Amino acid sequence: MSAHILDGKALARETTEALRPRIGALRRAPGLAVVLVGDDPASAVYVRNKSQRAAELGMVQRQITLPAHTSEAELLTLVDALNADDAIDGILVQLPLPKGVDKDRVLDRVLPEKDVDGFHPINTGKLWQRRAALVPCTPAGVIELLRRTGVDLRGKDAVVIGRSNIVGKPMVALLEREDCTVTLAHSRTRNLDQVVGRADIVVAAVGVVEMVKGAWIKPGAIVIDVGMNRRADGKLCGDVEYAAAAERASWITPVPGGVGPMTIAMLMANTVFASEQRQ
Ligand code: NDP
Questions:
Q1: How far is the first Cα of the chain from the last one, in angstroms, to the nearest whole number?
Q2: In 45, 238, 269, 278, which residue has its Cα 20 to 30 A from 229's Cα atom?
């Protein structure tokens, strides 16, 4: 293997530790509310990790768990209450939401200044206009990982595979902000192997086990694997064929231990930023 490994766990630890003095300088501790609806086991793990990290940093942490049959109206009432709660600076509604609940209506109800996931259309618009805003945590974490390589990102050809509102599309905006030339690929993209083969930076956010083949990677490229998939044997793996890609890449993120920890670190950073703005 020739690629350097981008250690997301170590960078996440550094990123969150760097928040302590900022938290200490605030008049009151930042407050984060995490709302979990239903009993999706993966969501329960994500929520626990987020709440735990917030507590470790001395934040006011409120985890609200609601049954799967919670109605949209009940959820909107809860969001309104959290919006009005002065001790709460950040509100995170864990996705997916149960069937029958309009995800967009719930996420749109969160005050943009408390939207620490960066999903509100106001924050999306500000991101594209390069104005200060709360930025979605996973793509923000990817940028921090790319910076960690020390490689000058300006003018690099980047491809983002996957066009979700929470990862792929904001990833494109953030790479454009770094002066990359960005291609956005998706399930209708033709000749994906060739598109990937031209890229200096590959960000895979698809959700399909090892669909990006190692042989597609341009020698020396940086490969960021956002995918979090379970193999048939239950083991976690990414969207990239890791061992083969690592033979060709200059830098690569492992799964687990790459993008995942950075997502949580950027949530903490967003909560501190939101609290600073509100205080
Ligand atoms: P979505 O399911 O919302 O989007 C997947 C995207 O991949 C779609 O745009 C889809 O295209 C595209 N796609 C699907 N199949 C192909 C294909 N064969 N070729 C090219 N593109 C394809 O996923 P998310 O963005 O929510 O998540 C993506 C992955 O990232 C998942 O594994 C998820 O678990 C992981 N993830 C990890 C996080 C972390 O912290 N590490 C955080 C968030 C997500 P189309 O639009 O045409 O359908």
A1: 48
A2: 269
What's the CATH class of domain 136-260? Answer: alpha beta
Q: What is the CA(99)–ligand 1 centre distance, in A?
A: 20
Q: Is 154 helix (H, G, I), strand (E, B) or coil?
A: coil
- 3-class DSSP state of 111: coil
* Distance from the alpha carbon of residue 32 to the mean position of ligand 1, in angstroms: 27
Does 188 sit in the ligand 1 pocket, CB within 6 Å?
Answer: yes
Q: Could you tell which of 184, 187, 268 is best to mutate to test the pocket of ligand 1, judged by most ligand atoms within 8 Å of the CB?
A: 187
User: What is the CA(239)–ligand 1 centre distance, in A?
Assistant: 9
- What one-letter code names the amino acid at 258? G
**Domain parsing of the chain, residue ranges:** 28-111, 136-260
Same CATH topology for 28-111 and 136-260? yes
Q: pLDDT tens, position by position, for the chain (279 residues)? A: 699 999 999 999 999 999 999 999 999 999 999 999 999 988 999 999 999 999 999 999 999 999 999 999 999 999 999 999 999 999 999 999 999 999 999 999 999 999 999 999 999 999 999 998 899 999 999 999 999 999 999 999 999 999 999 999 999 999 999 999 999 999 999 999 999 999 999 999 999 999 999 999 999 999 999 999 999 999 999 999 999 999 999 999 999 999 999 999 999 999 999 999 999
Whole-prediction pTM: 0.97
Render 197-251 in DSSP notation, one character per residue: HT-SEEEE---STT-B-GGGSPTT-EEEE---EE-TTS-EE-SB-HHHHHHH-SE
- Decide whether any atom of ligand 1 lies within 6 Å of the 161 Cβ: yes
CATH class given for the domain over 28-111:
alpha beta
